[in-house]
């Protein structure tokens, strides 16, 4: 049986009040603040396997997974050993080290079109740098992105972004100069005609199209058959680059990310890829990569500058390497099966309670929209009922299951979600579905 927790959480409430006196909104990343679901974010004191423990000593089955990285579960013993060993030999050198090479080799071995990778510290840095490289290579300035896709908080890529920007219903962000926004063309996702029209009108000025390989930041909205192929064909025909953002999908949807499921495309592979989350194993590590001939434009060999004090950090690379090495076929099969069990049970509970819903998939990544019908783009995604999700979320939380505090996010399952953890989620679903039906 799931536990039954009171809706107040005194220790987290006290910490949140204290946080608000020194941290904007009390959090260091906006979606953590529970604004769209209401209530107090749980302050976590420890995490192990599939579970989080909060400051009130309550245990939750975790379906946030740190928003993607924790594919093996929390504090995996062998990853912990690798991290402890690395940390015991120094925290940061500012000079090259072997694990950086090993992590790059691991990525190159998995994603066939990627020959060279540069390590950075966040997904935002990866997409920002890939975009700069694309502009440097083409000598063009415009970039096409898709509404509802989130690529980090890069000025040029915040327009109509998903994730927190979607959660808070922001059109885009204040503080982005109109000159930066003017170079960004936002198109509806899965709309080939819109893409072709923009390239017909403006193709010679477009440096790149950037897309989430399979979007997960407006909820999961997989590319319709032929869409990514069309992106590849149109960009190639107009001399623009295609950047596939695999920060979320990379090494999660398959050992080679979304590319491993869908690529290679008849019209060729994407030019540049970005990675993050899983490849850092919960530490700040991310990367961008592509063919050696393109990556050679980066400093020190080429004219496109990019750098980082902590890039390739020895502790982060040890965590990422140990994590990727343990992402075996069995791990992917387990996550796939657990995700299907959870999603099927959630759909059954919502159906039984008469709550409109749609489950969408990208590999083993799934999310549930609280609305009916196929979701193909951001406008469709916005039909999801935020109040129904908020009620569902809090009923799950009260029964010891921590979902992402936003209706637009993936439910991240890990290899540590064993039968006991999955059973606890299943047992909590009927009451949560009935709370959603009353919302
Ligand atoms: N791209 C995608 C597809 C993402 O999901 C995210 C983060 N959710 C980012 C980029 C940005 O990564 P980070 O938060 O590490 O900067």
Automatic annotation (TrEMBL):
Keywords: Cytoplasm, Isomerase, Porphyrin biosynthesis, Pyridoxal phosphate. It is found in: Cytoplasm. Gene3D superfamilies: Aspartate Aminotransferase, domain 1, Type I PLP-dependent aspartate aminotransferase-like (Major domain). InterPro entries: 4pyrrol_synth_GluAld_NH2Trfase (IPR004639), Aminotrans_3 (IPR005814), Aminotrans_3_PPA_site (IPR049704), PyrdxlP-dep_Trfase (IPR015424), PyrdxlP-dep_Trfase_major (IPR015421), PyrdxlP-dep_Trfase_small (IPR015422). Pathway: Porphyrin-containing compound metabolism; protoporphyrin-IX biosynthesis; 5-aminolevulinate from L-glutamyl-tRNA(Glu): step 2/2. Its EC number is 5.4.3.8. CDD domains: OAT_like. The modification N6-(pyridoxal phosphate)lysine is found at residue 277. Its main location: cytoplasm. Homodimer. This is Glutamate-1-semialdehyde 2,1-aminomutase. It comes from Nostocoides vanveenii. The gene is hemL.
